[in-house]
């Protein structure tokens, strides 16, 4: 059974990729943070910190975190930005946001981070309304990646940035094979045994199969209108951070 066929079949059972993804994250919201730490050996925190630094929000600016989930990237942005920075975290899965709200309350960050239900492919915000936009491990879950990047371009003000942190395809053959073995075989096993979620932690690696590699993702971002797009490979290329700028209007 190929990954493509099995995923398409799964999406059909729920009426498409978006409702499938929403239900899936709704089911694993309670174990999501723990599984992230375990499956990445704690590296996920470092990856988000790097992404937050690339977003580089200034004092008093507002950022948007798409697919904010349990709010870890929004929190990293606030911790790596100047005073008065505000984050809006959007996600289609209320259960993930609920976990995020509890965490934000524990950390006393309610005044800095606002979480809302919302779709990254149809962002419920006016044009030019945020200073920067980021996403952490969300892009490969989108139904239409180009539409997502177009929407980000619409809501970010001219001169503002987009930062996309996502699992990627490591370029080296040996490391690539090791990563493939870990990501497709061992990680789902952890998810099944510790997270007690077989289907969910099988979907997660397979969602990478048809996701573009880092140079192709850069080309897609440029195609929809992002300027000065660069990417940084982290941890041997397991993860890539793409950074783009919305060109100033002439
Ligand atoms: C892998 S989690 C990432 C959560 C968080 N950003 C992090 O760094 O851990 C992906 C999140 O994207 C959300 N998501 C998927 N498709 C979305 C969409 N179209 N719009 C908004 N959120 C979406 C899911 O509900 C899920 O919470």
UniProtKB/TrEMBL annotation:
Q: Record's CDD domains?
A: AdoMet_MTases
Catalytic EC class: transferase
Which keywords fit this entry according to its UniProt record? Answer: Menaquinone biosynthesis, Methyltransferase, S-adenosyl-L-methionine, Transferase, Ubiquinone
Which E.C. number(s) belong to this protein? 2.1.1.163
Q: In which pathway does it act?
A: Quinol/quinone metabolism; menaquinone biosynthesis; menaquinol from 1,4-dihydroxy-2-naphthoate: step 2/2
Note the Pfam families from the entry.
Ubie_methyltran
Residue spans making up a coiled coil are none
* Residues holding S-adenosyl-L-methionine: 70, 91, 119-120
> Molecular function (GO) terms listed?
demethylmenaquinone methyltransferase activity
Q: In its UniProt record, which GO terms are filed under biological process?
A: menaquinone biosynthetic process; methylation
Q: Which reaction does it catalyse?
A: a 2-demethylmenaquinol + S-adenosyl-L-methionine = a menaquinol + S-adenosyl-L-homocysteine + H(+)
* Origin: domain of life: Bacteria
What NCBIfam families does its record include? MenG_MenH_UbiE
Write out the function statement from the record.
Methyltransferase required for the conversion of demethylmenaquinol (DMKH2) to menaquinol (MKH2).
| Family, similarity comment | Belongs to the class I-like SAM-binding methyltransferase superfamily. MenG/UbiE family.
What is this protein's name?
Answer: Demethylmenaquinone methyltransferase
Organism expressing this protein natively: Ktedonosporobacter rubrisoli
- Report the gene name: menG
